Amino acid sequence: MASTSRGDSLPKVQCPNHPDAILVEDYRAGDMICPECGLVVGDRVIDVGSEWRTFTNEKATNDPSRVGDAQNPLLNGGDLSTMISKGTGAASFDEFGNSKYQNRRTMSSADRAMLNAFKEITTMSDRINLPRNIIDRTNNLFKQVYEQKSLKGRSNDAIASACLYIACRQEGVPRTFKEICAVSRISKKEIGRCFKLILKALETSVDLITTGDFMSRFCSNLGLPKQVQIAATYIARKAVELDLVPGRSPISVAAAAIYMASQASAEKKTQKEIGDIAGVADVTIRQSYRLIYPRAADLFPPDFKFDTPVDKLPQL
Amino acid sequence: MEQNNSLTPFPQGLASPPGAMTPVMPIFSPTMRYNTGLTPQPVQNTNSLSLLEEQQRQQQQQQQQQQAASQQQGVMVGASGQTPQLYHSQVSTTTALPGNTPVHTTPLTPMTPITPATPASESSGILPQLQNIVSTVNLGCKLDLKTIALRARNAEYNPKRFAAVIMRIREPRTTALIFSSGKMVCTGAKSEVQSRLAARKYARVVQKLGFPAKFLDFKIQNMVGSCDVKFPIRLEGLVLTHQQFSSYEPELFPGLIYRMIKPRIVLLIFVSGKVVLTGAKVRAEIYEAFENIYPILKGFRKTT
Question: Cβ separation of A249 and B247 shorter than 8 Å?
Answer without folding.
Answer: no
